[in-house]
Design goal:
Pfam family, one (chain B): ABC_tran
Strand order of the largest sheet of chain B: 6-7-8-3-9-10
Number of domains of chain A: 1
GO molecular function (chain B): ATP binding; ATP hydrolysis activity
Keywords (chain B): ATP-binding, Nucleotide-binding, Repeat, Transport
CATH superfamily of the largest domain in chain B: P-loop containing nucleotide triphosphate hydrolases
CATH topology of chain A: ABC transporter involved in vitamin B12 uptake, BtuC
Number of strands of chain A: 4
Membrane topology (chain A): Multi-pass membrane protein
Structural class of chain B: alpha/beta
Strand order of the largest sheet of chain A: 1-2
CATH class of chain A: Mainly Alpha
Protein name (chain B): Sugar ABC transporter ATP-binding protein
Number of helices of chain B: 18
Largest sheet of chain A: 2 strands, antiparallel
Shape of chain A: globular
Oligomer: heterodimer
Distance between the termini of chain B: 79 Å
Largest sheet of chain B: 6 strands, mixed
CATH architecture of chain A: Orthogonal Bundle
CATH architecture of the largest domain in chain B: 3-Layer(aba) Sandwich
Largest interface: A-B, 38 and 45 residues
Strand content of chain A: under 5%
CATH topology of the largest domain in chain B: Rossmann fold
CATH class of the largest domain in chain B: Alpha Beta
Order of helices and strands of chain A: HHHHHEEHEEHHHHHHH
Number of strands of chain B: 22
Chain lengths: 350, 522
Amino acid sequence: MTTVQDQGLVSAPAATGTARRLGALGGLAYRYGLLAVLLGLLVVFSLARSRFHTWDNTLIILQSVSIVAVVALGVTVSMTVGGFDLSVGANVGFVVMVTAQVMVRYNLTGATAILAGLAAGLLVAAVNTLLIVVARVPDLVASLGTMFAFQGLALIITSGQSVSVGMDLGGGRVAPGRYDPDFLWFGTAKVLSIPVAVLVMIVIAAVVIVFLTYSRWGRALYAIGGNPVAARLAGIPVNRYRALAYVISGLCAACAGILLSARLGRGDVGAGDVYLLQAVAATLIGFAVLGANRPNPFGTLVGAVFLGVLINGLTMLNVPYYTQTFVQGALLVAALLLSYAVAPRSRRAS
Amino acid sequence: MTADVDAPALAVERLSKRYGPVEVLRGVSFDVARGEVVGLVGANGAGKSTLIKILSGAVAASAGQVRIAGAVTNPATVRQAARAGVQTVHQEIGAGVIPGATVAENLTLDSLAPGGALWRSRRRTRAAAREIAAAAGLGADLEAVLDRPIEELPTSERQQVVIARALSARPRLLVLDEPTATLSTRESERVLASVGRMAAAGVAVLYVSHRLAEIERICERVVVLRDGVVQRDVPAPFVARALAEAMLGGTLSTLRHEIRGGGSPVLEARGVRARPDGAPFDLVVRAGEVVGITGLVGSGQTELLEQLYGARRLLGGTLSLRGRPYAPQSPADAVRAGVGLVAESRAEQIVPTWSVRRHVTLPRVRAHSRFGLMDPRLERATARRTLGDFGVVGPGADAELGDLSGGNQQKVLVGRWFDGHSTLVLLDEPFRGVDVGARADIAAHLRERAHDIGLVVASSDPAEILQVADRVVVMADGGVSGELRADQMTTEELSRLLTTPARHSRTTDARENRRAFGLETT
């Protein structure tokens, strides 16, 4: 029934723009298109290079995407409430610097470094929350500001230098500490032949999937992302949940920063910068997985793996590294087309 | 275009409009002569907005025609309507101004549209703006503020700018859609005065308002619309009460239910105000009774319910729920205390793509989860029970709510509060956009389920109120003008109350209240 009152009722991304009804083929493409392409890529790469479909290479791919995936899971949570955390890359970089500084400059233990790293991530989340939830600055611009501020802060706490063992502190003094082997374990060790970073990624992914998909808090977060007014009128404390989303996003970025710091074994200036775009791409590619058409942690994981497979396979095929960014961009655009243009007008939520 | 000097500026002839199966206008005919101010009144859903949209070219009529100065003009676009000489000033002032632009730029916006000059100069803009303002009779007022951003002006002056701009197109017909709805009485005066000046200059004015007192003052004739039909077309002088009667319909249907007195008080509101300028009043809702709140649009019903729900800051007074102080700071507080609201706008309560089940359990996620995880079986059971209780047949608990008919959507949004956890449910225009059958269903289910909780139903349509209420509170100007038992509600009595200024209807003074709530000792 179409009455005057019913107009302007639907505002989901699925229902706007070029959304239109397609045949069964369109529906299939929409649900399984991305997974089919991923499968196709795996087959092509395996046929072209026998080294590709080995257990070792699988672990290499997973290890290469573990940090991106953890960051992306955080971005996914921030997007479920209709927000967008642009500060995750800067957060990763800031945490790398803080952990390196704690161990190298102040000669403290790995456990202290981890705590300091998590605290640093929470600090970024706190600034985001203050700006977005309390001061009502729009999400994108607020987290953009946070991004700049913490990129700068990471430089300030290390006087603009990278932090490495035995670095010169000026005045003839040398940094007293070094990376704690227990800390480095996160970046280099393997358990049952699986890299620790991959295990951490799997645990965080499992927790985020259960939290977002099955818990009552996840239900509230999705309600806010779908229609914040409806969520508020149903008695959901919207601001508290939006703050929670940014805290989770900040903690995920902090975990990623700890993993990266442990892998690098030093605090590199700008180490986290590449993770923002990669994480956002993984999250957006995830929209198109199984026709979810909304931020979803399983899709995000698939998106991150997809990016890893692509880079790994292309590298094996000796495709020049400078074309990789373009290929990733094309993949993202294709996934966005699936989510926005091919999406059937009306979709069922689980 | 052939313009006939003797023909009326506007002639609406047998105009009809249907949206799907719903016929919003059914053969509406009336005229507006040059220099005449004609009032257009009608309750919600009478068809006023549709008529205005057709006149302004925003929607096309299904049948009938519109003549402007004698020439048949069925405007298909807003530009066509403007070319034919129709200018419309819409209710929301935001729709007519560009924030950030100066007053002068806003006044001369039409020369920015296709066909205007390529380059603009500040000096020429200002000169043109001055001319426009002077033509509208407000040159002196606006001279000082021409270069200020429009948003710095008070609402009434912004409204004047919009009207002046509409007049600058030298329209034959000016349609004013509730131009004073958001203005204070003093601000309204200025708008009313300018309407008089326009008419004197020969412009035909169609003046749409819910404020009958304004209609009485400035209109030479009034057209009353009800259910898409012209009920009355009468010249001045008219009586506000008679207009209200015509809007409401000849006779209200007879009551079909037993009046219940209600048990112990569920909600006691003392000295509350619906609007800052409204008179304070008391409201008591008892367990097992349905309290209807009615009033002309804009009398403050929505504002009152939103305050009771914590969605809006309480303007004054104190609330208690089942004898305990109740001061909700947010809807979350209200829901926790056992209060539910079915809001006026259905779209504001629907999460796109979500199933019936998810909508039903959204206010009660905690009760439907175990160890923090949602229990879909429990959820489905609750959703099925809600669907069953409110007679929604067909779609199941996992159907997408947005795919249901308007009536069924409303049944779900109403029904979710009747799960045994509510002590008070507030319903704002629950029958809007709902077909007659679903309306009767919802009303019957509401009465059936109200036996031990309090219900408040607000509607600007008294017929809807009569269908559910035991007691009717009539609001006017943000206050309460009277109260009736539903079986004593007659059209005459109601019309009198709707047009009576609200009086201070407090039964106790503030000190007594404070003492009653233990906030002040004697």
